[in-house]
Every structure is written in structure tokens, then in C-alpha cells.
Fold this sequence. Notes:
Elements: H1 2-10, E1 14-16, H2 41-52, E2 56-58, H3 64-75
Parallel strand pairs: 1-2
Helix pairs in contact: 2-3
Amino acid sequence: MKSRKRIVLNFCRYMTLTHSCDLPWVTSSNADDKTDVGLSEFGVKVVKEMNRMGMIVDLSHVSSQTMRGIVYTVLKKNN
């Protein structure tokens, strides 16, 4: 997370969470219903930190469950 903060402070304003493959913390749009687990606990922390730093969370290429998790995380009170 510290390296992400440094990157954001210097030049990064948005991040694509995944493109064509699942990662341990986020599921891509290529996932089927059985493997679409959405956002992990670490993924929630990443999204919260991105939101706190004013970064745009790119929802392109994420699964529907991941998208729901991101929206829920961002809109949830008391982040």
C-alpha cells in the first residue's frame, strides 16, 4: 500500500483492478457464476484506500460480483 500512495502522489489518478484474469483479491469479467467471488478483504482495503486518496476505481473488466462489492464499499457509511 505504501508504494501505491507514493505513485498516486506523483502521477496516478486511476487504476484498473484487473483485465483478463482473476487475481487473489478481485475477480475479472471472464469469471463464470461459480468462480465469481468478487472482492476479497484485501480488495476492500485497496478500494477504500483508493477512494480516500481520490483515485478513480476503474470497473472495466471486473465481474458483476466485484462491481457490486466495489459500489457497496464506496457507498457504505463509516468507511
